[in-house]
C-alpha cells in the first residue's frame, strides 16, 4: 500500500471511526459474550427439562412455564420477595430522608455524623451480615440489651415474621447511607428563597417541609425508590448467610429461590425459567425508571 | 431551614442523631471487640461492651483453620485486577461514546446499556455452563472476566461517558489541529482530566468485587481458591454451627482495612459513591 493511497483512504473521519470502534470493541465484545449470549441461552434453557445429576436435557417447550404457574412454593416466594422489597424501600426511604434532614442542619461536627452514618456502606457485606447474625442470636447482643429493659426478645432469625424484619433491617442499615447522601444533595438544591418567603408568611417548619421540601425533592425520592427496589431484588448474600431462606420459605426471595433450584437441586431448566421471571421484573422497573428520568429531566429544564 | 437553631432544637437534633447512630456504629464495634473475647464471654450476660481481656488466639486460629492468607490474597488481587481492568475498558468506551463520531454509535450504546437491564443473577446459570465448557470452573477467571467485560462494567462506562460529555471539547481541539492521534488525545489530555470520575469508578468497582458472594459460591469449590466473603462463612464447628469469635476475627480483618481507607479518604468515597453508585 503506497503512502499516497494511504492518506487518501485514511481521511480524518475514517480514522476517527476506526478509533471509535477500537475504543468500544472490548466492552462490546464483553457485553455480547457475557450478557447477550447468556440471556439468549437462559431463554433456550428455560424451554428444556434439564437435570445435571440425572444428565437429562430434553426440549419440553413451555412446560417449565406451566410449572412456574403451578409451583406451590412460588406464590409464597413472590410474596416474600414483594414483602422484602416493599419493607426495604419504605424503611430505607423514610430513614434516609430523616437522616438527610438532620444532616442538613448547620451544626458543629455534622460531617462526623455524616461519615459515621455512611460507614456501613464500605463495611464488607458478609462481615456486616455475620455481625448482625451474631447480634440476632437467641442469646445474642440484641436480646441481651432487651433483657436489661426487662423484655425477653424472640429468636429473631428462627420465626417467620421476625426473620423477615431482621433481613430487611440489616440491609437498610447497610446501604441507607447512599440514599441519605442523594437526599442531602436534593435538600441542598432547594432554593433558599422559597423558605424565606414561607417564613415571612409565618408558615411553621413542619408546614414548610410538607409544602416546599417534599414537593421539591419528590423526583429524587421517586427515582431512588425504583433504584432501591431493583437493588433489593438482587439481595442474595444477606439471605444466604442469615436465614438460608428460612424458616420455611418465609425469607426465600426470588434470587435465593433461583439459586436453590439451579445450584442446590440442580434443576437448571427450571432455574433458567425463574431467571427469565427475574429479568422481566427488573427490566420493567428499570425501564420505568428511565422513562421517569427522561420526563423529570425535561421538567427540570 | 438554614437558620440558626435554638439551643433546645440543637440538643434535640444531636440527641436524635446519637440514638440513630447506634445501629450504624455498634455492629462494627461489637464485631471488633467480640473478636478478642474468649468463647466463654461471647454470649455473656450482661453484654460486655469492652472485653474483659484481649485474647489474640482467635486471630491465630483464623489463619490455621482456613488458608486465610491465601484467601485474603485472592480477594485482594481479584479486586485490584477488576478495578484496573474496568477503569481501562470503561474509560475507553465511555470516551468513544461521548466524543468520537462513528456509524451506529447510538445503536451500539443502546446495546451496551442493555447490561444495566440484566443483573448478573439472571445470567448466572448460562455463565456457569459457559465457564464449565471453557474449563474455568473453580478458577478465578469468571470473577475477573465477567465484572471487567460484562454487565457490572456498563455502569462504569455510563459514568465515564457522562463525565466526558461534560468536559469542554476545546481542550482537545487544539491537540487535534496539532495532528495528535485519537489515542494520544485520550491518554494525554482526556484521561488525566477524568481523575475524579475514575476515582468514583475505582471505588465502586473495588467494593463491588470485594463484596461479590453469589458468583464465588457458584464458581469456586476448593478452600484455597475462595474469596473472603465466602471464606468468612466457613469457620464452623463439627456440627456446622458458626465459631462466632473466629468468624468475627476474620470479619474484622476483612472489614477494617477498607473502613480505615474510607475514613482517610471519606470525602472521595461519599461524593464518588453518591454521584455514581446508585445501587440498592
Report on the structure:
The complex is a heterodimer of chains A (301) and B (280). Chain A has 301 residues and is mostly helical. Chain A has helices spanning 3-9, 12-45, 63-70, 74-103, 110-118, 125-135, 141-148, 160-188, 192-200, 205-232, 237-242, 254-264, 268-300; strands spanning 48-51, 56-59. Chain A is globular. With 280 residues, chain B is mainly alpha-helical. Chain B has a single domain, classed as MetI-like (MetI-like fold). Classes of the chains: A mainly alpha (301), B mainly alpha (280). Chains A and B meet through helix 2, helix 4, helix 5, helix 6 and helix 7 of A and helix 1, helix 4, helix 5, helix 6 and helix 7 of B. Chain A: One of its GO terms (cellular component) is plasma membrane. Chain A: Belongs to the binding-protein-dependent transport system permease family. Chain A: It is a multi-pass membrane protein. Chain A: It comes from Phyllobacterium myrsinacearum.
Please identify which CATH superfamily of chain B we are dealing with. MetI-like
What is the fold named in CATH at topology level of chain B?
MetI-like fold
List the quaternary state of the chains: heterodimer
What would you say the CATH architecture of chain B is?
Answer: Orthogonal Bundle
Specify the structural class of chain B: mainly alpha
SSE arrangement of chain A, N to C = HHEEHHHHHHHHHHH
So, CATH architecture of chain A? Answer: Orthogonal Bundle
CATH topology of chain A: MetI-like fold
Indicate the mean pLDDT of chain A.
89
> Strands of the largest sheet of chain A, in order across it?
1-2
What is the CA–CA distance across the termini of chain A? 52 Å
Indicate the CATH class of chain A.
Mainly Alpha
Strand content of chain A: under 5%
Instruction: Enumerate the spans of chain A where pLDDT stays under 50 for 5 or more consecutive residues.
Output: none
- Estimate the helix proportion of chain A, in percent: over 70%
Structural class of chain A: mainly alpha
- Reading the helices and strands of chain B in chain order gives HHHHHHHHHHHHHHH
Amino acid at each position: 500500500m503506497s503512502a499516497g493511497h494511504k492518506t487518501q483512504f485514511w481521511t480524518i473521519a475514517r480514522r476517527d471511526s476506526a478509533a471509535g470502534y477500537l475504543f468500544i470493541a472490548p466492552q462490546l465484545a464483553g457485553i455480547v459474550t457475557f450478557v447477550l449470549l447468556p440471556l439468549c441461552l437462559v431463554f433456550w434453557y428455560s424451554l428444556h427439562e434439564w437435570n445435571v445429576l440425572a444428565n437429562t436435557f430434553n426440549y419440553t417447550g413451555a412446560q417449565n412455564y406451566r410449572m412456574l404457574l403451578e409451583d406451590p412454593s412460588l406464590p409464597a416466594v413472590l410474596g416474600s420477595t414483594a414483602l422484602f422489597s416493599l419493607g426495604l424501600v419504605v424503611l430505607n426511604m423514610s430513614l434516609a430522608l430523616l437522616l438527610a434532614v438532620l444532616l442538613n442542619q448547620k451544626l458543629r461536627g455534622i460531617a462526623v455524623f455524616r461519615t459515621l452514618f455512611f460507614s456501613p456502606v464500605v463495611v464488607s457485606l458478609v462481615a456486616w451480615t455475620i455481625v448482625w447474625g451474631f447480634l440476632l442470636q437467641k442469646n445474642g447482643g440484641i436480646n441481651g440489651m432487651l433483657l436489661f429493659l426487662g423484655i425477653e426478645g424472640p429468636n429473631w432469625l428462627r420465626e417467620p415474621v421476625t426473620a423477615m424484619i431482621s433481613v430487611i433491617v440489616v440491609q437498610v442499615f447497610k446501604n441507607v447511607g447512599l440514599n441519605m447522601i442523594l437526599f442531602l444533595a436534593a435538600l441542598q438544591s432547594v432554593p433558599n428563597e422559597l423558605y424565606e418567603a414561607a417564613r415571612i408568611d409565618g408558615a411553621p417548619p413542619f408546614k414548610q417541609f410538607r409544602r416546599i421540601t417534599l414537593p421539591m425533592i419528590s423526583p429524587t425520592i421517586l427515582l431512588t425508590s425504583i433504584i432501591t427496589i431493583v437493588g433489593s431484588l438482587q439481595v442474595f448474600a444477606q439471605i444466604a448467610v442469615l436465614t438460608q431462606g428460612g424458616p420455611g420459605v418465609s425469607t426465600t426471595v426470588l434470587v435465593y429461590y433461583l439459586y436453590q433450584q439451579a445450584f442446590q437441586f440442580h434443576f437448571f431448566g427450571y432455574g433458567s425459567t425463574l431467571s427469565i421471571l427475574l429479568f422481566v421484573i427488573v427490566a420493567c422497573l428499570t425501564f420505568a425508571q428511565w422513562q421517569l428520568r427522561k420526563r423529570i429531566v425535561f421538567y427540570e429544564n | 431551614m438554614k437558620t440558626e437553631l435554638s439551643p433546645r432544637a440543637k440538643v434535640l437534633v444531636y440527641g436524635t442523631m446519637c440514638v440513630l447512630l447506634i445501629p450504624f456504629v455498634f455492629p462494627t464495634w461489637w464485631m471488633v471487640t467480640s473478636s478478642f473475647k474468649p468463647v466463654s464471654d461471647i454470649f455473656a450476660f450482661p453484654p460486655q461492651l469492652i472485653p474483659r481481656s484481649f485474647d489474640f488466639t482467635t486471630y491465630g486460629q483464623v489463619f490455621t483453620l482456613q488458608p486465610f492468607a491465601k484467601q485474603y490474597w485472592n480477594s485482594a488481587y481479584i479486586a485490584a485486577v477488576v478495578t484496573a481492568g474496568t477503569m481501562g475498558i470503561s474509560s475507553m468506551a465511555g470516551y468513544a461514546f461521548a466524543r468520537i463520531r462513528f456509524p451506529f454509535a447510538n445503536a451500539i450504546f443502546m446495546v451496551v446499556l442493555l447490561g444495566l437491564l440484566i443483573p448478573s443473577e439472571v445470567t448466572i446459570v448460562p455463565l456457569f455452563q459457559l465457564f464449565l465448557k471453557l474449563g474455568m470452573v473453580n478458577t478465578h477467571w469468571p470473577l475477573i472476566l465477567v465484572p471487567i467485560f460484562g454487565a457490572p462494567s456498563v455502569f462504569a462506562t455510563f459514568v465515564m461517558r457522562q463525565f466526558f460529555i461534560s468536559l469542554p471539547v476545546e481542550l482537545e481541539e487544539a491537540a487535534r489541529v496539532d495532528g495528535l492521534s485519537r489515542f494520544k488525545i485520550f491518554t494525554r489530555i482526556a484521561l488525566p482530566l477524568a481523575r475524579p470520575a475514575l476515582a468514583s469508578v475505582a471505588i465502586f468497582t473495588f467494593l463491588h468485587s470485594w463484596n461479590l458472594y453469589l458468583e464465588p459460591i457458584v464458581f469456586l469449590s476448593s478452600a484455597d481458591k475462595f474469596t473472603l466473603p465466602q471464606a468468612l462463612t466457613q469457620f464452623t464447628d463439627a456440627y456446622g454451627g458458626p465459631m462466632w469469635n473466629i468468624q468475627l476475627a476474620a470479619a474484622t480483618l476483612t472489614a477494617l482495612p477498607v473502613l480505615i481507607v474510607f475514613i482517610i479518604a471519606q470525602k472521595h468515597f461519599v461524593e464518588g459513591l453518591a454521584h455514581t453508585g446508585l445501587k440498592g
